[in-house]
Amino acid sequence: MLDLKKLKTLRARTFNLPPQKRLSSPAQALTFVNQRGFVYFWTIKGVDLPSLWTAVAGERPVADKHDDPGHITWGWKDDALDKRIWYYGKILRGKATMISLEIAPYFYALSENYGDPEEDYLIAYREGRLTQPAKQVYEALLDKGAMHTIDLRREAKLANAKDSEFNKALEYLQRDFKILPVGVAQAGAWKYSHIYEITTRHFSDLSEQARKISESQARAKILELYFNMVGAAQMRDVNKLLGWGNEIVKRGIGKLVDDGNLVTTEHPKFAGEWLAVKEVA
């Protein structure tokens, strides 16, 4: 049976909740990301995962007011985009995710990038996994180099396309580790536009680092980090976050249970099987 008191204590530490002190500097933010392995930038409703917002602002919804003290995180994130101190992009569930440089190769090893960045996308396109708009965005960056979204949309010949079409292309390419934001430009109506670049140009060693990691090793590492952060979860929670599919998640969790890193247990308030680290079970 899960010990809810121990679970709360574990999450207070990993989510940086009281009695932990709130983060107050970019250096502390970097340490937080490195210790966790991967976190969300903002909290995502219905998903349990540490976020930089919560670690700085506390356990409350993301504020609408731009002058909220918690939004200091926005400046930290933007200032770090070109520093290569972590990997940032719309990754997990297509939401803003920060991944430590140590763990980024494990995620990249699970992407559909197998070798040459100038060929992989064409294979994905021919196999129907890459949309036409995403192909055009990627080719524009491949040909012209890093550029902000206003220029990118024009160079990709998507100036007259629906906003949703262009944004979906950007999201897909980020989720598959093909592109990432590397800066901010004062462009567009709001004088704020992300600058995008091909992932392997910005992190030239990432592909080589990932090549040494097998798919099973990558999944095991990510699952282990996840459970070390949340303490306990159900299989559906894991799949909701990672989107690997039930069979793959079940296989990965099964290995962690067999290795003694996780135990199956029950929740005193909720039905169904739970998986937990030994610390809270």
CATH domain fold name of the largest domain: Arc Repressor Mutant, subunit A
Mean pLDDT: 95
The H/E string reads HHEHHEEHHHEHHEEHHHEHHEE
Say how many strands there are: 9
N-end to C-end Cα span = 6 Å
Tertiary shape: globular
Query: Which strand order does the major sheet show?
Result: 1-3-2
- Name the poorly predicted regions: none
Binned strand content: 5-15%
- The SS-based structural class is alpha+beta
Biggest sheet overview: 3 strands, antiparallel
Number of domains: 3
CATH superfamily of the largest domain: Winged helix-like DNA-binding domain superfamily/Winged helix DNA-binding domain
Which CATH first-tier class of the largest domain would you pick?
Mainly Alpha
Cα radius of gyration in angstroms: 20 Å
CATH architecture of the largest domain: Orthogonal Bundle
List the total number of helices: 14
**How much helical structure, as a percent, in the residues?**
40-55%
